[in-house]
Amino acid sequence: MMIKNHIRNTGHEVVCEADLWLKAIAQFKSLKPDLVTMDIAMPMLDGIQAVEEIIKFNQRQKINVL
């Protein structure tokens, strides 16, 4: 919540949130955001593996892993 508020307070838009890695990857592919902030603790697949999947789709993606 703090990161989301900080992003908004600095004039940027939060375009989506996902609680499962499958949703996160699907939304990433659909929305193509400028920046991804990923929690490394996620159900079923950890955030690092989700980041690897995102990088397979876009090798230049900027990702902030928490």
Q: Which features does this protein show?
A:
66 residues; globular; 12% strand; 45% helix; alpha+beta; 3 helices
Assign a percent range to the helix content. 40-55%
- The secondary-structure element order is HHEHE
Percent strand: 5-15%
Number of strands: 2
Assign the CATH architecture: 3-Layer(aba) Sandwich
In this structure, how is the largest beta sheet organized?
2 strands, parallel
Task: List the strand order in the largest sheet.
Answer: 1-2
Our count of domains comes out at 1
How confident is the prediction overall: mean pLDDT? 84
Please give the radius of gyration in angstroms.
11 Å
What is the CATH topology assignment?
Answer: Rossmann fold
CATH superfamily: Response regulator
Q: What characteristic shape results from the CA principal axes?
A: globular
CATH class category? Alpha Beta
Q: Residue ranges: pLDDT <50 for 5 or more in a row?
A: none
Cα(first) to Cα(last) distance is 13 Å
Helix/strand/pairing category: alpha+beta
If helices are DSSP runs of H or I spanning 4 or more residues, what is the number of helices?
3
Architecture overview:
This protein has 66 residues and is an alpha+beta fold. It has a single domain (16-65), classed as Rossmann fold (3-Layer(aba) Sandwich). It is built from 3 helices and 2 strands; from the N terminus they run ααβαβ. It has helices at 2-9, 21-31, 47-57; strands spanning 35-38, 62-65. A two-stranded parallel ribbon has the order 1-2. β1, α3 and β2 (62-65) form a beta-alpha-beta unit. It is globular, with a radius of gyration of 11 Å. It starts with a helix and ends with a strand. The mean pLDDT is 84.
